[in-house]
Amino acid sequence: MNKRNIIIITVLVSLVLIGLVGIQIYWIKNALSVKRTNFERTITETAAIVIGKLEKLEVADQIKKQLNVDHNGQDLFTTIDSINYLYLKELETSSGKVKPESLVGMSSEKIQIKYSERKNGRTVKRYDTTIVSRTPHGAYGSEQPLFSEKQNIGKIPDRISDSTKFNSQSRMKALLQKKNTLVKEVFNELFNFKHVKPIEERIKPKVIDSLLTEELKNKGIETQFEFGIYSSIHNRLVYQKTGDYTNELLKKSLGFILFPNDMPISPDYLMIYFPNEKRYLFAKIAGMLSISIVLIITIIILFSYAISTIIKQKKLSEMKNDFINNMTHEFKTPISTISLACQALNDPDIKKIDKLPDNYINIINEENNRLGSMAEKILHTAIIEKGLLKLNREWIDIHEIIRDIINKMGIQIEKRGGIITTDFQAEQSQIKADKIHITNLINNLLDNANKYTHETPVIVISTENIADGVLISIQDNGIGISKANQKKIFDHLYRVPTGNVHDVKGFGLGLSYVKAIIEKHSGSVSVESELKKGSKFKIFLPFDNNSEY
Predict the structure, then answer these.
(1) How is 265-290 classified by DSSP, letter by letter?
(2) Cβ-proximal residues to 145 (8 Å cutoff; 6+ apart), any chain
(3) I need a surface site. Which of 153, 304, 387, 395 has the fewest CB within 10 A?
């Protein structure tokens, strides 16, 4: 898959992901909006119930205070009963079914009904009406009976005249009007206190708090709330539950008219605010929200993994192609050299020259060893990748190995006018490791230091003891490695890009092999480098590690 196709797929999948995320965000907003609407509707219903209960409690309390059955209230009920009794008598009279012994004399008299609060017995209001006493001795507190069953009793004809019926109906109508007027006046007076008392005297904060808590719990809402009472007359909050949310109550709360049946010009309001409203609403959709977030994150992770895998596979494919090309060139050179040497040996003239055939034979042998070495590197890499590498651990002296490598490679470096210096500070240089692989990894590092130094190579090898092991440092004055490439140089088949210039031979296996061998020995490798200022590789190998891989 080429780069263009990868970019197109990445863009398309990214757009799909953005669309999915947008849909999820839109759904979450809608869900929150619905929850908020339902929440506010529930709060409105709760407030209506609480305000209704407050009105009922206030009415009950006022009736209890104003209509004390043991005192003033008895006069009112007595008057109503008397009017009802007289109305019944008039009804019997007008219907013509009145018996002579049931007739009563009628004598209207003005009396006064006291309607007052218990404030030193002072009368607040007096009503004028007609009271009917069904007892001859004024059982309802009259000084004299207004009507007596013994008054005006005489012989009554069997039929009632039309004029009598008409008079009875007129009196009945008057009685009903008096009763209605009486009840209306009394109850109007009873509730006139609403227009007089300030809101501070009418509310009971503890009762409101208790009612709100109970009703919210009944509605399934169990979260912190704050309430306050706002007075339109004073243009301020006259009460707050805690006093911690004054601004919120004024700007963000839900307001409801207190005592709406009063129909005041400047109503007072019950303000309710929920500090944790958003958290509460999110908690209501937490399940679906969590699933949505998990799905989105999972999709993003899978997409990222798929794209990264494609990119890695593309890079790996490119590196393998480079590896094959490099390997072809690397193998082509010794093969060509061997081929030329064989052709020369087959030349009769060359056979006649003393020692010349031996030189060609030595060339063939060296090139053959070179081919074997390259093949061995490839095989080692394959074995390491499959996890089949087995170490042959033995006690070795790291200083002796370094000296042997310098003796072999020193000639190549000296040919370029370079030098190799050592600084062995490690007092304990004995480690338990695989001699062949340790020799190969140090040889690879020294070979790289030589190959990637365009000027006269100056290489310093030092050792020291740290943390139960030996730290080996190999420093050169080569071309250096950029920060971006320092993280990649130990990857399999990776070679630092050099543009169109391929003056350094190699497969890209050396440093990946070095890292693999060091990790097999439970060690570590790192690099410090700067472009055009050389590189410094640090290798740590423990004295003895018996872990098996």
Answers:
(1) SS-EEEEEE-TTHHHHHHHHTHHHHH
(2) 133, 135, 136, 137, 138
(3) 387
Helices (H), 221-355: 246-251, 277-284, 286-345, 348-352
Collapsed DSSP state (helix, strand, coil) of residue 308: helix
| DSSP 8-state code for residue 195 | G
Q: How far apart are CA 382 and CA 376, in angstroms?
A: 10
Contact residues for 521 (Cβ-Cβ < 8 A; gap 6+): 391, 433, 434, 438, 541, 542, 545
Mean pLDDT by 10 residues, the chain (549 residues): 77 86 86 89 92 84 61 56 66 54 39 41 42 38 36 41 60 69 61 63 87 90 90 88 89 88 78 90 84 86 85 77 70 80 79 74 81 74 72 91 87 84 93 90 87 88 92 92 83 61 54 86 91 91 71
pLDDT of residue 305: 86
> H/E element holding 202?
helix 199-202
Q: Is the separation of the CB atoms in 118 and 68 below 8 Å? A: yes
| Residue 392: CA count within 13 A, CB half-sphere | 4
Task: Check if the beta carbon of residue 205 is closer than 8 Å to that of residue 227.
Answer: no
Question: How far is it, in rounded angstroms, from Cα 510 to Cα 504?
Answer: 13
**Which pTM was predicted?**
0.45
If one counts every other C-beta atom within 10 angstroms of the C-beta of residue 336, the result is: 11
**Ramachandran quadrant class, 534 (left: phi over 0; alpha: psi -120 to 50; beta: rest):** left
pLDDT at residue 460 in the model: 94
Could you tell me the sign of the dihedral formed by the alpha carbons of 406, 408, 409, 415, in that order? positive
Q: Report helix, strand or coil for 139.
A: coil
For 191-235, the pLDDT digits (tens) are 555 455 788 888 888 999 999 999 999 988 888 999 999 988 888
- Residue 522: left if φ>0, alpha if ψ -120 to 50, beta else—which one? left
Q: Which helix (H) or strand (E) holds 428?
A: none
Determine the Cα–Cα distance for residues 494 and 484; give it in Å rounded to an integer. Answer: 13
